[in-house]
Structures are given as structure tokens and as C-alpha cells.
Amino acid sequence: MKLFKYTSLSLLFLLLLSRCAKENEGMVPPIISGLDSEYLVAVNEELKLIPIITNDKDVTYSWIFNQKEVANTKAYRFKAPSTPGNYNLRLKVTNERGVDEQSISVTVAFLTRISTGICTLLQLDTSGKFSGKNNITWTVLKSFDNLYRLAYTHTEKPIFTSAQTGEYIVKASKAELEHLFLITVNDMPTQTPYISQVFDFLPAPGQFVNELPRYAKGDTHKDMVRKAGESLIGRDANMVSLGGWGGYVTFGFDHTIVNVPDRRDFRISGNAFAASSNPDPKASFGGSCEPGIVMVAYDKNKNGKPDEDEWYEIKGSANFTVEKETWYPKAVDNKNDTNTIRDYEMTYYRPKFETPEQAGEIDNPDSFVTIQNYIRWTNNKGQEGYKVKNVYHSQSYYPAWITDDQLTYRGIRLAQNGIDESNSGSYYVLYAFGYGYVDNYPNTHDNSGIDIDWAIDKQGKKADLPGIDFVKVYNGIDQENGWLGECSTEVGRGEDLHLLGINIGTINK
Fold first, then answer.
1. Distance between CA atoms of 313 and 437, rounded to whole angstroms?
2. Do 171 and 139 form a contact (C-beta atoms < 8 A)?
């Protein structure tokens, strides 16, 4: 009986509390939420403001603009003035128990709203007020993060691109004139960080040609480009060999790789590795380093092909001179050709013989050479000679699908980096250049990453690219290394480091 009485009293107490709370519901000050502290609107644009009010029983509203009350309703439509500028708006909400206020800053501007996708090139066009104006200043006022690029800011039509979703505000200004761009970057879930297409493939003669990828009788150039694509496209890419100096492959991505400041932007895998037991323990990094020179382009005409788009050179550490490389003195002592030739041209001729018997040469089982005078070559420096055929690869080293009897390649020829550290022909070390090449460092090393900001134009000036869509890699070394054979760049998986979330700092130069 006592328990029942106690329980009844408790229930009565709770009912009284609930009734009291309801009676005093309007006796709590209102609270404003649901409004931003800052808004950006275009001139003459209407901005609808609808606040959320907690404890809104018996409240009054007051919207104040320029020290005057302009509305006393909950929702308010703010009509932006025709004159750009920063304006202050205030909302005051009152009931018997108190007052809550919120100040709102409204920036009114000549404004263009644009929606785009990540890793997509967006050209910004100033309003007519800027037509013919020089020295327009472009500024990023708001950014979601630093994974964006605003390039060509010295022009009336710069290019913006971002590798992250979010809102960005860009301002164009000249004296008293200003124009803002509110850019909303949306996700593009179908994009892949890996190579999506191979456009061309033409290796120079070498010991892995017709094997990586494998040639089948009757294959055409188109077939071999397709096979190169089968090797390189996607996450599970294999490798192709570019053969001797000048051999190349051209490929692209399904999006623009953003040129993010102060970070390396992409990486092309190779098969470089360190020497396991270099006879010189104090030597710099080396082993099997077969650097490929990198060319890049962005899809300016937006047709998805590297056809009329300008190519830019990734300025690696030795594209102009090798003297700053740590192994340079060693190469001089070894009597390597340490010249960097920027206008090199080399022609290879179809071999007349594929076996020692055909060549009339004696098959020496103690030699690594099968045919000494195998593939004839000439260059534009008045030199000529022969590439040898070794005992390890018996197939033809000349691209079998090519019908022409000679192949000519043009580009930069780097200094020779291979050194016989054994002095007996048994242990060759190919030393790594500082940065800026493919198949030059192991794939996990930071120096395998490429910064698009290293790109230069044909006059050697920094290119300031917004990003890149296409890449061409060609073998930059012309050197035979004894039983190892020619230096031959191998190319594997391509990666957009930003889409993969990989952050590698750059080397500023």
C-alpha cells in the first residue's frame, strides 16, 4: 500500500512539471540558427533568407539594413543593390523573455556562378568591362583545399582546375573593376587515376623489342599500339620496352592531372633498381637506371587526342647539362660521353642478318655478342656505327611491324650514365639522374614522381600549365653496357598522385 502511494505521488509530480514546462514554454529567449554569417550574391540578385528560430512562441522579427527596418517577417528576400560592395544585414528576434540577434555580411559583386567536375579544365572569361584590359590581377579568395591550380593568370582567360570537390571563389580585378567567379567543383566518380589510353608506340631497336609487348606475325603498327595499351592501361599494368635511344610511347588519362603547387603530380613506373653490391660503396644511387625523358600536354582543343596540342618538356636534372649530377666525375674518368645534346637525331637501319651464320661471323661461345655488326646507325653529328646482338635475345631487335628499312628519332640525348665498376666487364652500374625522368629511380622512391611545374616550353621558359592530359616518354640514353646490352627505358603503370592521395613534395628549381 505504501509503494502504491509513493508511485502515485511521483506520477503527480511529473505531471505538474510537464504542465509547468508547457506554461513557461514562451518564457525562454529565442535562438536564431540556419543562417550563414556571410553571403555572396550578384548585383541585382535576390537572396532569400529563412532563419530557424528556437522558442519562437510570440516572437517578433526585425530585419535591419542600412540602419533601417526593412521587414518584420520571419523570411526575408534581400534584393542586392546594383552597386558592388560589402553590405551588413541584421536580424533581431524578440519575445517576453529576451532578444537574439545575428549580423550577416553580404558581398554584392559582378558574379559568375560555374559548376564543373574535379580534374576538369575550366577557362574563366572576364566580363565585358575587362575587354582589352592588360595586367588583370587574378586572386583565389576562397579554396576548399590546396589541390587546385589557377594558371595563365597573366591573361584575360586563365584556366582553373581542382582535384578536390568544394567551392572556390576567384576574383579578377583591374583598378576599381572587380569580377568574382563562384566555382562549385563536383565529384566525377568514373575517373580513374591510371592510364586510360595509349595513342602511339614505336620503340627503337633493342634487345626487348618484339617481346615487350610480344609481336605476332602479321601484326601492324595499330596492333602493336593496341598491345601496348593492353600492357599499360589500368591499375594492373605491365611494362613495355622503348628499346634504344629515341624509342617512345604516348598515352593519356581520362581526366586532367592537376598541377598542384609544391607537390609532385604524377608517376610513371619503370623497373629501375639499386645495385646490390656496387664495388664502389661510396657511390651515389645507381644500379639499373635507364631514364626516359618526359613530354606532357593538356587537351587544349578538348577533343581527347594529343593531336594539335602543344608538347612541353619536363626539365629533368640533366636536360641541359650533366655536371651537377653526383656521378659526373666518375663518368668523366670512365671516358663516357657526358655531353647533353638537345637537338639529337639518330637513324637506325634494318639489319641484313639475324644469325651469326647469315652475318658470316664466328659464333664465339665465350662472348656475350652474337652479331657484332648487327644494326647500323647514323646520327646528325657525323657519327655512325653498329648495335650488337647479344646471346640472351635471339629475336629481331628491329620493330618487326615496321615496313620502312630505316627509323629516325629526334629529341634530347642525355649523358651516358653506365659505368663498368668492375673494370673487367662483369659489373655495370647505371647511375640515377637527380630527378625528372621515368625508369630512373625505383617506383616507391619519391624521385620517381614528376612535378608538372618542371615543364618548360620550346624557348626554355616555365610553362605554368594548369595540368596535363597526355604524356610521351622516350628513351634518353644512347649507350651499350657490355653484356647488359643497350640502356633501354621500360614503362609501366601511370598514376595520378592526387587522386590516389599520395603527397610527395617537389624540388623547386
1. 11
2. yes
- Of 4, 66, 59, 72, nearest to 31 by C-alpha is 59
Dist. CA 418–CA 436, nearest whole Å: 18
Tell me the pLDDT tens digit for each residue of 8-58: 545 555 455 555 545 555 478 999 999 999 999 999 999 999 999 999 989
Residue closest to 243 by CA, chosen among 390, 373, 393, 397: 397
CB–CB of 145/166 below 8 Å? yes
Residue 191 CA to residue 253 CA, distance in Å, equals 9
Residue 419 C-alpha from the chain's centroid? 34
pTM above 0.85, yes or no: yes
- Specify the amino acid at residue 253: F
CA–CA separation, 291 and 325 (whole Å) = 14
CA R_g for the chain: 34
Where is 294: in which H helix or E strand? strand 292-297
265 close to 496: Cβ distance less than 8 angstroms: yes
Which residues pair with residue 167 across a beta bridge? 184
The Cα 387–Cα 480 span in angstroms is 8
User: Tell me, what amino acid is at 493?
Assistant: R
Contacts of residue 5, defined as CB under 8 A and 6 or more positions apart, other chains included, come to: none
- Give me the residues paired with residue 447 across strands: none
Bridge partners, residue 53, by sequence: 32
Q: What gap in Å lies between CA 14 and CA 287, rounded to an integer? A: 83
Residue pLDDT, tens place only, 140-193: 999 988 999 999 998 889 999 999 999 999 999 988 889 999 999 999 999 999
Q: How far apart are the first and last CA of the chain?
A: 91
Burial 230-266 (b: 16+ CB within 10 A, else e): ebbbeeebebbbbbbbbbbbbbbbbbbbbbbeebbbb
Distance CA 88, CA 145 (A): 28
d(CA 16, CA 4): 19
User: Which cell is 42 given?
Assistant: 550578384
Do β-strands 197-202 and 455-456 pair in parallel, antiparallel, or remain unpaired? unpaired
What is the torsion angle, in degrees rounded to the nearest 10, for the CA atoms of residue 222, residue 227, residue 232 and residue 233?
Answer: 80
> What are residue 173's DSSP bridge partners?
137, 178
DSSP for residue 415: P
CA distance readout (Å), 239 to 7, 73, 209, 232: 81, 69, 12, 7
H or E stretch at 198 = strand 197-202
Q: DSSP string spanning 303-318? A: SSSSSSSPPEEE--TT
